[in-house]
Specification:
6-stranded mixed beta sheet, 12 helices, 22% strand, alpha+beta, Peroxisomal Thiolase, Chain A, domain 1
Length: 397
């Protein structure tokens, strides 16, 4: 449990998430994330030199990844600080925030920036040497498709891990998954109401290169698919006998987000409203049965709640990383909560999954929802590659 780590109100941003092979497909994720953070800091009239350390969360190889964190810090304007590059698949943001909170808790530093960024588009094609192979032929790896299609330990594609959970627990149908997906689409529409009033509380536009001499702003999510119950019903399961169609799972995306973590006193100083206090309370982690990734959300959540000294009934807002609709159905069943009443205002199932920043955006949305509700505890939980999961509890006062 943490007691000393706080997030200033509005001391965070998320870019819109761009569709796979969309507007951000040619941008270096490190460079784009850092430059977006620099523009956001300038808009807030904040100097990057307030930061003592940078946690850079990124999972997909980009040019100059070797220099990732210190390069990003310099591009942000924090030219004198070091940083650490954290790649932990879908749990990247959650873990970056936890590590920053732990550093503040121990007095290692007072003010930290967590920058999470990724580009699923145009993923790297890696060649590994294989001198002892037949004719010395190399081993090749397509970062996106090869890793999504087979866990080297679990032996199956990610979607199969969700279907394995469905088979193990029973009682989850394609109709259930379609209904949850449609509900998540409805919740996302709430974030678009009144000219995107909710999203504009935290979303910051990305400036990207449209041509050699032309730039453009991406100001809203790109690639959200219009969804109806009838349309979902017509889609067949991806795996024969399974419950997930293409509509009931997330899609790769590109984007970034940033979050300031600091002491209570500094958070008040940096806050857009000093009467609002946001505390990082606890972190949880888990590993589920082999090839049962969707199960990891529950023990991770329970660990975070236990460390916070609360139970699920004390939580006012819940957000999840839900790459498959069954994730939320399983969580709801195990935690005895209504699957239709969490993930308000959106989730990765609808707006996409750029890996590194996905959980960060969900946590930011959860904070804003808690502010609207007048405060309380929030729980974020999500699965990640390798049958793992991570969770975070925050408190808004």
């Amino acid at each position: 449990m943490y007691s000393k780590a706080f997030i200033p109100y509005r001391g965070y941003f998320s870019s819109p998430f761009a569709r796979w092979q969309g507007s951000l497909q040619n941008e270096n994720a490190i460079e784009l994330g850092a430059i977006t953070a620099r523009r956001w800091l300038a808009a807030k009239d904040l100097d990057a030199k307030i930061f003592e350390y940078l946690y850079l969360g990124k999972t997909i190889g980009q040019l100059h990844t070797f220099y990732a964190a210190p390069w990003a810090a310099a591009l942000m304007g924090a030219t004198e600080i070091p940083g650490c590059h954290i790649p932990q698949a879908c749990s990247t943001s959650t873990t970056c925030i936890s590590l920053a909170a732990a550093g503040i808790e121990t007095g290692l530093y007072k003010t930290v920036f967590c920058l999470m960024t990724d580009r699923c588009s145009n993923g790297p094609h890696t060649i590994w040497p294989n001198p002892m192979g037949p004719g010395g032929e190399v081993i090749s790896e397509d970062w996106m498709m090869d890793n999504f299609n087979k866990d080297p330990w679990g032996g199956v594609a990610m979607i199969q891990t969700a279907e394995n959970v469905v088979k193990k627990v029973g009682g989850i149908t394609k109709e259930d998954c379609d209904e949850v997906t449609y509900r998540r689409y409805e919740q996302y529409q709430d974030a678009l109401a009144n000219d995107r009033e909710f999203q504009k509380r935290y979303m910051f536009p990305v400036e990207y290169k449209k041509g050699k001499k032309e730039t453009a702003l991406l100001e809203a999510d790109e690639g959200v698919v219009p969804t109806t119950r009838e349309g979902l019903a017509r889609l067949k399961p991806v795996i024969e006998g399974g419950v997930h169609s293409f509509g009931a799972q997330t899609h790769p995306a590109d984007g970034n987000c940033g979050i300031i973590l600091t002491t209570r006193e500094k958070a008040r100083e940096l806050s857009a409203d000093s009467s609002i206090e946001i505390q990082v309370v606890s972190y949880g982690f888990a590993r589920a049965l082999k090839a049962h990734m969707a199960m990891a959300v529950v023990p991770a959540a329970r660990m975070a709640l236990e460390k916070a000294g609360i139970d699920i009934g004390d939580v006012r807002a819940i957000k999840t990383h839900n790459p498959f609709a069954a994730n939320d159905l399983y969580l709801a069943r195990e935690m005895n909560i209504d699957v239709m009443k969490f993930n308000n205002y959106g989730s990765s199932l609808i707006y996409g999954h750029p890996q590194g920043p996905t959980a960060g955006r969900g946590i930011i949305e959860m904070i804003e929802e808690l502010v609207i509700l007048g405060g309380g505890y929030g729980l974020f939980t999500g699965c990640a590659a390798g049958d793992t999961g991570a969770a975070l509890v925050v408190k808004v006062s």
